Amino acid sequence: MKWIESLQQAIDFMEEHLSEDISIEQIAKEVNFSPFHFQRTFSILTDISIGEYLRRRRLTLAAHELQRTEAKVIDVALKYGYDTPEAFTKAFRRQHGITPSEARTYSGKLTSYNRLVIQVNLKGAEPMNVKIVKKEAFQIVGMNRQLSLENGENHKQIPIMWENANKDGTSNELFQLQNGPKGVLGVCVDNNDKTIDYWIASAHEGEVPSHFSKMTIPASTWAIFEVHGAMPDAMTKAWKQIFSEWFPSSGYEHAGTPELEVYSEDDPANPNLYSEIWIPVK
Description:
By secondary structure, the chain is α+β, with helices and mostly antiparallel strands.
């Protein structure tokens, strides 16, 4: 349960510094998470990014302050991280539907977001099919890109990478190369900074085609989860269940090395599609 306590501690830290310019790196360091794993865990459990949480909470507090005090709009804007009244007004209107000036006399209900409290289910309503397997190091080959974690850029770019790989034949070639875990792999490598390396690859021992790169996945103990259903909903649901149910009750922790999603050649829209999630654990 330690990681749950750490996540709540991180949320408390954010709440205490909402009027300051804090970075994801600062927040993650406060609880000994890497920026990537902190962002990933947070977004899986809450369905929003850290940046969006901070924005919503700051605008909620800004609205309360405008309604309850005589503070100037420009002062409230600067307090909650907006350099100009125009930027503040635009963000405020997007969340609340009115301008900051109108909020002073507004008698209707504003869009408020409460402070988060992390809760998990120790006993899931749906069973999870998982096996623990020790596996020696193996090589993957494929294409990779370094992606920024800023403003959720990695979440925007990964689907584009897959779309391009499916269009240009890369996925088909990787299916032909595989001689390890059966499927094309989506691999996240945490760089312990503001970036990750994301791979679309396959497990392959032998000669590497010149247009592909290679990387060694270290020997690990893997928690391998079955995923049943069409993409992307089935994969999203499985990740949420893993973090909200399995990790809190299993006694295992993420080992911090690359994790894998394993995709088959079947139609991604097939409601009976079989995929896997491989997480290195300790």
